[in-house]
Fold this sequence. Notes:
- By secondary structure, the protein is mostly helical.
- The chain is 42% helix and 10% strand.
- The termini are far apart.
Amino acid sequence: MQDRIVITAYTVYSPLRNSIQELWTNLWHHKSALKEHDFLQLEKFRFPKACLMHPYAEGYETDRGWNLTERGIADLVLQAEIKLPEQTGLFFGSTLGESALLEQAALHSDTNTTKAYANYWARRIQAKYHLHGPAVAYGTACAAGNYAIGQAADYMRYFDLDIAIAGASEPFSRIAMAGFNRS
Length: 183
């Protein structure tokens, strides 16, 4: 019989609520976080509505994805009530990562985009928790979180990885917003 993979902790940060119970309740009652935003109108988006986390600071904050990721990992570690072993695997997904940095780079050629990608978040988490296991990041659009979770499960099944952290973080992106407006 194949060993089972057990989920020992989970968390969510969503424009609809920041707990699994509240999120499911709101979904069950057909609630939506979609709202019209003045800054999207000012920037001439054809569809100035979005589901944004609150509090949402307008402007180019270039560490929203990292902040969500770090907060989520801290919650997971606290929930699981374990000290992560050095060989813990990290599997992250994000469509564009810290897209505000990429947007800033389009305006200012001296912008350092190293911190713009989910693999940077993985390396920072490794350093923070002194981990040396695999750290993999996926930029596979809307499926990035699914890829991360699936890959974590495969590493646990086939590569003798005992503990893995998997998930996705997606800060607001004007780039993605422009793409959805055009489609």
